Amino acid sequence: MTAQAPTAPADVYAEVQHFYARQMRHLDMAEADAWADTFTEDGSFAPPSRPEPVRGRPALTAGARQAAADLAARGETQRHWVGMLTVTPAADGSLTAESQVTIIAVPQGGPARLHLVCTCRDVLVREAGELLVRERVVTRDDRP
Question: 95 pairs with which residues across the strands?
Answer without folding.
Answer: 89, 124
